[in-house]
Design brief:
The chain is an alpha+beta fold. It has 2 domains: 83 residues, Phosphorylase Kinase, domain 1 (2-Layer Sandwich), CATH 3.30.200.20; 215 residues, Orthogonal Bundle (Transferase(Phosphotransferase), domain 1). It has 12 helices and 10 strands. Belongs to the protein kinase superfamily. CK1 Ser/Thr protein kinase family. VRK subfamily.
């Protein structure tokens, strides 16, 4: 039985003519039906993550892929007097936090820039579909199940519709909402209780880049005091050179990250970012390394380490496969109510496994 607020993932397959195997391409995300985050996430997926929407964006923007999970279907299920909501989505491999920790809490400069370019692609897409993510971090970034060079942003439980029907929310500080998100990465606006915005997502990505490359953030020593964290972020926003000196005391500082943070600093709350401008800043960083955007992540290769990226990714993916496979069991179908994308309607009842 699922406990209150517990999230479970179970293997699922689009092929209803066979049993769900350990190589299934989808998962069912299951939570108690009164759990708010899954409802919020489901609304995002229904509005902005239908397969045909994502494919159209990929084609029109000439992308190799887009790291937004596809929504395949959803519904309600009753068991033992409890009601559960489920959603069918793509299956993924390891999350970046596990790889980051296994790699001595460092990613190479090239890997950080490549990751961030793909995340900018994701953010532009979800922002253009009226949503912001609000909780970008390594544990919410998953590698593709089949391609470790592809990364996907997941967990839209804090996703916020910042621009419903094309009208941007007003800047308004709300003490009841202060410090929403993950404390070490969340934006200054969120610390002040302001609703999430596009500039907030870009600010969060900046903090992620700094941590992934340096191994720490200046306020990590006192995360129990959210006001301290907020004040540190404000102080360093006003003096980005000081932030860079603190995090990168060596001579070879990543100038592109400083430029990125300066550009975020100039954004107004309701302003639409020039996403290509931010990409160009990161591409300049790759060029300074003698590299280019080749879509290769090389997550395990660091300047002062010898851990191999593919070995880590493979091991973590195997761990996830075993965990998922061990949770597969038959789910009763007779009392499931299914809402889904039309092309999967006839298959969903038979493919859900628990």
């Amino acid at each position: 039985m699922l406990a209150q607020a517990t999230i479970d993932f179970h293997l699922a397959d689009t092929n209803s003519s066979k049993s769900v195997g350990s190589d299934a391409p989808c998962v069912a995300k299951v939570e108690p039906s009164d759990n708010g985050p899954l409802f919020t996430e489901l609304k995002f997926y229904q509005r902005a993550a239908k397969p045909e929407q994502i494919q159209k964006w990929i084609c029109t923007h000439k992308l190799k892929y887009l790291g937004v999970p596809k929504y395949w279907g959803s519904g309600l299920h009753d068991k033992n007097g409890k009601s559960y909501r489920f959603m069918i989505m793509d299956r993924f491999g390891s999350d970046l936090q596990k790889i980051y920790e296994a790699n001595a809490k460092r990613f190479s400069r090239k890997a950080v820039l490549q990751l961030s370019l793909r995340i900018l692609d994701i953010l532009e897409y979800i922002h253009e579909h009226e949503y912001v993510h609000g909780d970008i971090k390594a544990s919410n970034l998953l590698l593709s199940y089949k391609n470790p060079d592809q990364v996907y942003l997941v967990d839209y439980g804090l996703a916020y519709r910042y621009c419903p029907e094309g009208v941007h929310r007003e800047y308004k500080e709300d003490p009841k909402r202060c410090h929403d998100g993950t404390i070490e990465f969340t934006s200054i606006d969120a610390h002040r209780g302001v609703a999430p915005s596009r500039r907030g997502d870009l600010e969060i990505l900046g903090y992620c880049m700094i941590q992934w490359l340096s191994g720490h953030l200046p306020w990590e020593d006192n995360l129990k005091d959210p006001n301290y964290v907020r004040d540190c972020k404000i102080r360093y926003r006003d003096n980005i050179a000081s932030l860079m000196e603190r995090c990168f005391p060596e001579k070879n500082k990543p100038g592109e990250i400083a430029k990125y943070m300066e550009a975020v600093k100039l954004l107004d709350y309701t302003e639409k970012p020039l996403y290509q401008k931010f990409r160009d800043i990161l591409l300049q960083g790759l060029k300074a390394l003698g590299s280019k955007d080749d879509s290769k992540l090389d997550l395990g290769v660091i300047e002062n380490g010898n851990l191999k990226a593919k070995a880590v990714a493979k091991k973590r993916k195997t761990d996830m496969e075993e965990s998922l496979a061990s949770s597969v069991e038959e789910m009763e179908h007779s009392d499931s109510q299914v809402e889904e994308v039309p092309q999967t309607r006839s298959r969903t009842r038979k493919r859900i496994q628990k």
